[in-house]
Design a protein that fits this description.
about 120 residues; 4 strands
Length: about 120
């Protein structure tokens, strides 16, 4: 059940370890991103890669969804299966869906008295 203090929004985090070419993974992921971005309830996502030397085979996707039901509907949509298969052909992953428990944003300069 969603944590109502934060409006039910959920965050999906998926860590990838590549066994295929990084360029191909990013191309396939872009197509998956386009599909997910068209699904109801999708808010945003970021695909991240570590800066540390030797970590170039790792990626992390962080995505926000309006609620768990929207996320589940997107990944259960029949048109998602080919995207998931293409990503699995290039990587292994550790997907996890999270509920928000705390958030903090930087204070605006006018609120702190700083320029």
């Amino acid at each position: 059940m969603p944590h109502t203090e934060f409006g039910g929004a959920v965050t999906f985090v998926n860590r990838f370890l590549l066994h295929g070419p990084a360029e191909e993974f990013e191309r396939v992921f872009a197509a998956t991103s386009e599909f997910m971005g068209s699904r109801p309830g999708f808010l945003w996502h970021m695909l991240l890669r570590p800066l540390e030397t030797g970590q170039d085979r790792h990626y992390v996707n962080v995505a926000a969804w309006e609620d768990e039901a929207a996320f589940r509907a997107a990944v259960q949509h029949p048109d998602f299966a080919p995207h998931a298969g293409a990503l699995r052909a290039l990587s292994t992953s550790e997907p996890t869906l999270y509920e928000t428990r705390q958030t903090r944003a930087a204070a605006l300069p006018e609120a702190t008295g700083r320029p």
